[in-house]
Amino acid sequence: MTVLETRLRRTRRQCAERRGHLADLEVLAQRLCGDAQRVRNQIEQAGPAADATWPLIQRYGKLERSIADLEDRVVAARAALAASEQELNLHERASAYPGIRRRG
Q1: Tens digits of per-residue pLDDT, 47-92?
Q2: Is residue 74 part of a domain?
Q3: Among 31, 45, 70, 88, which is disulfide-ready with 11 (CB 3.0 to 4.6 Å)?
């Protein structure tokens, strides 16, 4: 296997891993949003009874912070995937023309 083929395989594997990671983060974000909505509904149903709603309010706050953090991680994962896909595109084009060397 040539160096070019090895790089191409490594980059394909990296893209696949990053796609999987992004998909996992997006599923988790959806799940947390659903959990937050359920807790929000419980808060609204509980009414003004402060003793009963305080733990729910705390839980809701934690979920909202987790969702915000997760959104940042999704943005970073998308950027990493885009960079990997761009690198993969370069390697695939280079493998299509193995006799041409890249300058730089």
Answers
A1: 777 677 889 999 999 999 999 999 999 999 999 999 999 999 988 8
A2: yes
A3: 88
92 is a domain residue: yes
- For CA atoms 70, 30, 77, 14, the dihedral sign is positive
Total domains in the fold of the chain: 1
In whole angstroms, what is the distance from residue 42 CA to residue 38 CA?
Answer: 6
Q: Which domain holds residue 42?
A: 3-96
- Report whether 18 contacts 77 (CB < 8 A): yes
Q: Would you place residue 13 in the very low, low, confident or very high pLDDT band (cuts 50, 70, 90)?
A: very high
Q: Is residue 104 part of a domain?
A: no
Give the tokens for residue 101: 């060397």
Rounded alpha-carbon distances, angstroms, from residue 8 to 1, 4, 103: 11, 6, 18
- What gap in Å lies between CA 89 and CA 76, rounded to an integer? 20
Is residue 50 in a domain? yes
